[in-house]
Amino acid sequence: MLQTDLIASIPALLRRHADARGSKPAYRDATTTVTYGELAVRTANLAGHLADNGVQPGDKVAIFLPNSVAWVESCFAINRAAGIGVPISYEATESEVLYRLQDAGCTAIIATDERAPLIAKLTNDAPDLKLTILSGQGPAPAGALRYEPLATSAPKSSPRDPSEIFEPAFIIYTSGTTGRAKGVLLSVHSMLWVTAACWAPIAGLSESDVVLSPLPLFHSYALNLSVLSILSVGATEYIMEKYSTTDAVRLLKSGEFTVFPGVPTMFHYFLEATKAEPGLKLPNLRLSMSAGAIMPATLNREFESRFGIKLLDGYGITETSTMVTMNWPVGERVMGSCGLPLPGLAVRIVSPANGEDVAIGEEGELIVRGPNLMSGYHNKPEETASALRKGWYHTGDLARSDANGFLTITGRLKELIIRGGQNIAPAEIEEVVNAIADVIDSAVVGIPHEHLGEVPALFVVAREGTGIETKDILEHCRGRLSSYKVPFSVHFVREIPRTGSGKIIRFKLRETLVAPINKAS
């Protein structure tokens, strides 16, 4: 079942595919295509120049680029220089960038000319940062080097090309949905184990696939699937700089692509944008996958019914190198669940109160053990010890399992709303509300109540021009939820704040409602 031949060092995989399919396109974006042969040469050049310019083994190098071929090349080059890659969202704020540079202790950064002024501004507060490489054209700003000349010219040093795959190779910062992000230490082995256990055997990813990826590459989901797994199997990929529904529809209509990964919000917007084309065909697309956030069963069913293409939902987290569970394209599925644990991975659902395994069908905290676990949080020994206990990673996610082993994620342990002693999972309310035809998106947060402790507040994005009102939503909820789970308040908003992987940033919603309430509104 496990395709262990796909687990190898990045330099070994580059050599493997350069020899076997050197002229085949590996990655491309709107302006650039790189073949496997070119990828091997360009990343070797970049790695050598990193060494020539002072990057030592184990140094942290930030990738501060938009989704692009250059992003992928930078990732591989850092590894070939024996450095540790630190992806930073291209949309990160000044404080977020500075925090990551300081926390990781980055000595070098690869960025764009557009971000050069910000980097220069942060240099005094990030004293370890000595080298800046910029991907623009023309003369480089003072003290910076140009990316393309480094990628196309022979360096003095050869790439170090480490064969070791168990030591940390990446520091991936968590989404920070509840506060300051933590740097998760992941290895090439932990990441490619997911390829060997999930993407290849379950999704069937292979060298014959052409993948359309809209995923933000700085997230673990995309780094795992859209960067490392493409290299591992020798597939071809088109990298979208940002997700655009219009572009995704146009590209998938072309018939070029066989696999389309995303997050639930992307599939939702895709369905919304194509409602006027009931007979729309997506030729040659054989599979779509979703992870990063809980997918409503209604969304899954509608996508599969509309296009006749399997949309496999899975559950993954950064600390497990992404995937923990996945639905299979064959056999029975439980819509709304995130599938079965990956082969070779151990999972348990335990009581948060005593750590004992709960009964089938009961809710508890999901804990995980396997080869894909992080080695820990960078420079955070206490948080590491709290999360990794006796070999098990405590996810903080609430889940339940049916008799056949299908897992359903019901919410976050810290997001659980306790109303007068009764537990409410926000995801359960969201699933009910998202089934309303005039609702585009929704989110639930717990807010203070002077008598009950906490109550659920509902935020709704309604379809324009429908006239849906609070009373309509509450009536719908009362018919489908226990009375204590019915939202105490409904708030219409333009959008639900989410991370790049689709997770709801609940604290931002909660901050808009800080005063205790005692009645529905």
Q: How would you portray this structure in words?
A:
The protein is an alpha/beta fold. It has three domains: 4-187, Rossmann fold; 189-336 and 366-396, Rossmann fold; 417-510, GMP Synthetase, Chain A, domain 3 (2-Layer Sandwich), CATH 3.30.300.30. The chain is 29% helix and 25% strand. It is built from 15 helices and 27 strands. The strands form seven sheets. It has a five-stranded parallel β-sheet, with helices on both faces. Strand 10, helix 8 (220-233) and strand 11 (236-239) form a beta-alpha-beta unit. Helix 1 packs antiparallel against helix 2 and helix 2 crosses helix 3 (69-80). The radius of gyration is 23 Å and the shape is globular. The termini are far apart. Mean pLDDT is 93; it is low at 515-521.
At a glance:
The chain is of the alpha/beta class and 521 residues long. It is built from 15 helices and 27 strands. A 5-stranded parallel sheet has the order 4-3-5-6-7, with helices on both faces. The protein has a 5-stranded mixed sheet with strand order 12-13-14-15-16.
Radius of gyration, taken over Cα atoms and rounded to an integer in Å: 23 Å
Mean pLDDT, as a whole number? 93
H/I helix tally = 15
Return the domain count: 3
Report the oligomer.
Answer: single chain
E-strand count: 27
Largest sheet data: 5 strands, parallel
